[in-house]
Design a protein that fits this description.
The chain has 596 residues and is of the alpha+beta class. Helices cover 58% and strands 11% of the residues. It has 17 helices and 11 strands. It has helices at residues 8-18, 35-63, 78-87, 106-140, 143-155, 283-319, 343-375, 379-415, 417-420, 426-434, 443-454, 461-477, 484-510, 512-548, 553-570, 573-583, 586-589; strands spanning 66-68, 71-73, 158-163, 179-182, 188-198, 207-214, 227-232, 234-236, 242-245, 248-253, 264-277. The strands form 3 sheets. Strands 3, 4, 5, 6, 7, 10 and 11 form a 7-stranded mixed beta sheet that branches. The protein has a two-stranded antiparallel ribbon with strand order 1-2.
Length: 596
């Protein structure tokens, strides 16, 4: 059974209590968004997620999207839900008020995204891709294009996509073949085919705005010859209404493992009119503005699915009677005890809980930095925020989606045979979570970005935005009698991270394959240390609250219990990651390709 209730208390905890000392300063531009206001917004978002989107999740998976005569129909209820979502202003939460957005902090927006993804991740892609598109247009397009397209995209009247992949090229976009021919009026005509286009065609909005990577006739080879173009499905008229079709057609929708209520399309562009976004041959720079926004959001998708899977598993574990507790009967009036009494079931549930709470805490930290990137008045604080976001984006994308998928698998295991049956609903979480580890750059690509680009950038400056607060916390709290064991565990893991960083830097200078071989383990290691730091801080806050007296003692006691489980059972993975990194590439690369 798919069960979800928004974890509002934990969201409020990470937003208001956990990161007050993040070093990004007071963001005066966001002062109007008080805790009372943001909490009210989150509570309304929870109602939308639980009452509108969750009831459509299972049915949308069964029904899927249908392509008929070149038109895609979304599952029953999606059009009505999207209309409500749009009219309620949920598409425009974090967008600039200049274009009709509400200008909310990203920290609030990301919590809202988590709720939407937990309730119905397929639905989340329709407004989610649009928000990424508006980010790229706002950052790189001409004022004329902004005025023409942003208001309707921000409002949700029009949606957006990103069109990168072609059948012969995925990550290596330097191989793409879509052509853009300049016209006398300053526009371009694009011809080519794209695949795997999320929300590429659907019946939710009156127009779809595609951001398309293509080559001009004079483009140099490789990624240095790629430009970005804005190509609408329908050409807008001067008054802003929808005009004639623009040569964009859908040839198929992909038959996917999961996300069946999200229309993933194969699109053809046939002399489609488009306009350049950014500079010629600099399309990757503009597209990465969108992709980096989406990478954080994809990480939040993993967290959302992980939370829904966890709650569904808890529901089942409390309801399913099977065996007797090894410590004595817990349900004497029944034929057996609920399976939540068994240690191995507790292991799975606590693992999922710790993953979710740890990822949510990192989300609040990173989104606070996203806000500081835009609004910090102190140049040093702004730079520190930019560095932190650059460092953590691949970690958020890769770690959260890995753990979300693991949580979904654990939920199936808790259900046992019933979890493998479609009617239970939890096998859908496995299928829906799997793609998040692949799109917006596979998790292996995220790891390569981290060790290949982010670690050496500016002589390691990005790392200082992470290392400094962690080391400061350790030094300030290592003698704390209550936190001692946790801080000791964090210090050991942090030491492993520092040694691993030095190892990769030293070996990678001699042999880039050494750094690449260590990349995935290093990404997990950095993520584990980030979670450990957040849990240690959470334990400090919880203990302070309990000592000071609180009417929410149960919440803070649960937070401490989860933190202790993390340090006992999950953070030791840091040692294994360090040993794997230290082993080097030799055994990984020893076997000749022909021998596989």
């Amino acid at each position: 059974m798919q069960v979800y209730e928004a974890p509002l208390r934990d969201m409020k905890f990470v937003l208001h209590e956990l990161h007050n000392d993040d070093g990004f300063g007071n963001l005066e531009a966001l002062a109007e968004f008080t805790p009372d206001l943001t909490d009210a917004i989150l509570e309304e978002a929870a109602k939308v997620a639980q009452e509108v989107l969750l009831p459509l999740n299972r049915g949308g998976d069964v029904e899927g999207c249908i392509l008929e005569n070149g038109v895609v129909r979304t599952p029953t209820g999606f059009k009505e839900a999207y209309a409500m979502f749009r009219d309620g202003g949920w598409c425009a939460l974090a967008s600039d008020p200049q274009w009709g957005g509400q200008g909310l902090p990203e920290s609030v927006n990301k919590m809202t995204e988590e709720m939407i993804c937990a309730a119905n991740v397929s639905f989340s892609l329709y407004p989610g891709l649009t928000h990424g598109g508006t980010t790229a247009i706002e950052g790189h397009a001409s004022d004329e294009l902004k005025q023409r397209f942003l208001p309707k995209m921000v409002s949700g009247e029009w949606s957006g996509t990103m069109c990168l992949t072609e059948s012969h090229c995925g990550t290596d976009l330097g191989l793409l073949r879509t052509r853009a021919v300049p016209q006398d009026d300053g526009s371009y005509k694009l011809t080519g085919a794209k695949i795997f286009i999320s929300a590429g065609e659907h019946d939710l909005t009156e127009n779809i705005i595609h951001l398309v990577l293509a080559r001009m006739p004079d483009a140099p080879a490789g990624v240095k010859g790629i430009s970005l173009f804005l190509v609408p499905k329908y050409l807008p008229k001067d008054d802003g209404s929808v005009g004639p079709a623009n040569g964009v057609s859908v040839s198929a929708i992909e038959h996917k493992m999961g996300l069946k209520a999200s229309a993933t399309c194969q699109l053809n562009f046939d002399d489609s009119v488009g306009w350049l976004v950014g500079k010629p041959h600099k399309g990757m720079e503009a597209m990465f503005t969108m992709m980096n926004t989406e990478r954080v959001s994809v990480g939040v998708q993993g967290l959302g699915v992980g939370e829904a899977a966890y709650q569904s598993a808890v529901y089942y574990a409390k309801d399913r009677l099977q065996g007797r507790s090894l410590s004595g009967v817990k349900n004497p009036g029944g034929p057996a005890d609920p399976i939540i009494v068994h240690p191995d079931v507790r292991r799975m549930l606590m693992t999922m809980r710790a993953y979710n709470e740890g990822c949510r805490a990192i989300t609040a930290w990173v989104s606070r930095a996203l806000d500081a990137e835009k609004h910090a008045t102190d140049p040093e604080a702004r730079q520190r925020a930019e560095d932190f976001v650059a460092l953590m984006t691949p970690v958020v994308k890769a770690l959260f989606t890995d753990l979300g998928f693991e949580s979904a698998n654990l939920a199936v295991q808790v259900y046992g045979g019933h979890g493998y049956i479609a009617e239970s609903g939890v096998e859908q979480y496995v299928r829906d979570a799997r793609i998040a580890m692949i799109y917006e750059g596979t998790n292996g690509i995220q790891a390569l970005d981290l060790v290949g680009r982010k670690l050496p950038a500016h002589m390691g400056r990005y790392l200082r935005s992470f290392f400094h607060p962690v080391s400061t916390f350790i030094e300030a709290n290592k003698a704390d009698a209550d936190l001692g064991k946790m801080v000791e565990g964090l210090e050991k893991a942090f030491g492993a991270l520092q040694l691993s960083t030095a190892t990769i830097a030293e070996r990678g200078m001699r042999d880039p394959e050494e750094a690449a071989a260590a990349a995935t383990d290093y990404t997990r290691l950095l993520g584990l240390v980030a979670m450990g730091y957040c849990f240690a801080k959470a334990a400090f806050v919880a203990q302070s609250a309990l000592k000071g007296g609180t009417d929410e003692a149960d919440f803070y006691k649960a937070k401490l219990a989860t933190a202790r489980f993390f340090f006992d059972r999950i953070l030791p993975q840091a040692t294994a990651a360090f040993l794997a990194i230290k082993s080097g590439k030799a055994s990984m690369m020893a076997l000749e390709a022909a021998a596989f």
